[in-house]
Design brief:
Blueprint: E1 3-14, E2 20-34, E3 37-49, E4 51-52, E5 55-56, E6 60-72, E7 77-89, E8 92-94, E9 97-99, E10 105-116, E11 121-124, E12 129-132
Antiparallel strand pairs: 1-2, 2-3, 3-6, 4-5, 6-7, 7-10, 8-9, 11-12
Length: 138
């Protein structure tokens, strides 16, 4: 298989009198480009909303997206280049009341690196499992 997709999501309601709503979602994609080349991407989001003294406040949220291209020299060494972007609208509490700032926070990172994995294999002979550690995923 050249593709792998991972998806997850969650929803929660509670936290007593604050009646907090929390929703999250995650998506991850991995693609084997060619022999020794691997591309990965991930997207995550988290949204939170509070209820206080009869008012539901604007939600706080964080969204993050990243991508990475890796080249494997051998089982244990790889070089990679990637980009990661995050944008957020946080919420702060002042006298137990949620307050939202007027703007957003944004952060972008470009990453270049070399990775060494000291454990190259996973084996559980009693269960009949023997496989190589695979990079990527969420």
């Amino acid at each position: 298989m050249r593709w792998q997709a991972d998806i997850a999501g969650g929803f929660r309601y509670g936290d007593g009198p604050n009646r907090q709503l929390l929703a999250s979602s995650d998506l991850g994609l991995t693609y084997i480009v060619a022999d020794r080349w691997l591309a990965t991407g991930a997207f995550t989001s988290l949204t939170t909303s509070y209820y206080h003294e009869g008012t539901r406040f604007s939600p706080a949220w964080v969204v993050r997206a990243s991508g990475q291209l890796s080249y494997f020299f051998e089982d244990r060494w790889s070089a990679f280049v990637g980009v990661d972007q995050q944008q957020a609208r946080p919420q702060f509490f002042f006298n137990d009341t949620p307050e939202s700032p007027a703007g957003f926070q944004r952060q972008t990172q470009v990453q270049v690196g070399l990775t060494y994995r000291p454990a190259g294999r996973f084996e559980a002979r009693g269960l009949g499992v023997a496989e190589r550690v695979a990079p990527g995923g969420i």
